[in-house]
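worker-3 :: picked Epoxide hydrolase EphB
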Amino acid sequence: MFLKSGELILHVDLQGSCDAPVLVLLHSLGTNLHLWDPIVSSLTRYYRVLRLDMRGHGLSEVGQAPFLIEDLAKDILSVADYFGIDMFSVAGVSIGGLIAQNLADRVPERLVSMVLIDTYLAPTTQSIWSTMAYDIRNHGLNHRIQEIFSRWVTPAFRDTPSAIGMKQMLSRTSAEGYAGCVEALSQIKPEQPKNTKVPVLVLVGESDIVATPAAAQEMAIARNGKLVVLKDAAHIPILEKSDEVLEEMMKFLVKNFNQTIRMETSV
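worker-3 :: tokens ->
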């Protein structure tokens, strides 16, 4: 379905029982909500799963640049408010994990728990992101697709149908949408988390050279989270290691949802 958020039209998918706890899934830069397809059917047995295409990705409009991570987080809240969702868990990959952390720092009272997948507290070397945004906006995305894609999955996975599907997501992402999100990344300032009470699970591919295991460990410590390193995985493990990602997410989400229910009923 399509919803209006401010001046933007966003593409949204909502599945699962209206009585189930809500889980918001945020995709990575250069993909779209279909990144989560391999595990959505399993998650919707227990959760009401909300996915949306980020600005300039999939079928969502890009709107006017520049925009910030805060604006991408506001898009999530706008969609949640439309459906009357007050509290939810959130899982985000790469930039999706940075959006999730922005929500945790700005509206922690709305988050039950948070899964951060192959992301970091803040991007390193902001000048690189600014240069990339300029290049893509002026020369398009096609000349960088192979470079970007090569970091997403391990060499053994790159020729599989699922990996090629991810590459198609990237090639069909608008240059303006990609550049706008890269600019948003370049504006994130390194700082200590404002809120460390939201329960956190950190997942990272052992071969991730973008958001490295070391960066994941730093983030897990800063946010009082649990760190799990996924073997034989790179920057976007949702397709390559879907079973492992689903297993770790389910163990974490069920535990923290049950704790939240106990806390609410004891008040």
